[in-house]
Amino acid sequence: MKLNELKDNKGARKSRTRVGRGIGSGKGKTAGRGVKGQKSRSGVGGVRAFEGGQMPLYMRLPKRGFNVPNAKSYVEVNIGRLQTAIDAGKLDANKPINVASLVEAGVVRRAKAGIRLLGTGELKAKVDIEVVHATAGAKAAVEKVGGSISLKGEK
Prior knowledge:
The protein is an alpha/beta fold. It has a domain at 75-151: CATH 3.100.10.10. The chain is built from four helices and five strands. The chain has helices at residues 57-60, 79-87, 99-105, 136-144, and strands spanning 75-78, 115-118, 128-131, 133-134, 148-151. It has a three-stranded parallel beta sheet. Strands 3-5 form a two-stranded parallel sheet. The longest helix is centred in the middle third of the chain and has 9 residues, at 79-87.
């Protein structure tokens, strides 16, 4: 066997059906689309959700859920990010850390409704931090190194 003698098995490659090429081809005139109308035209395909004037399924099903119109948006900060800022000299661990100091250090861009402290990462420095909310893991990590968390603005 030589490379120039290689060929596909019989029936491995099927040529596509060319439609609209005369009635004798079997796929001429309407090209397998039936007769006239919207669905026989190119690029339309009919309106998918239309059920012949009956109320469509997506309108029959009940609405669920509720979006709070005045929901508060908090900035989330991980304790690992705080440690990075302290190591870089942007935050002073000896002074209390609050929203103003975090914005000034470039840890957060803007305060929004307050800071949420999350527990991802490792904290080595003893810090006194003032936030709106802190997760249980974050509280445990801060208290483990001898720091404290004070919650401001929480109801």
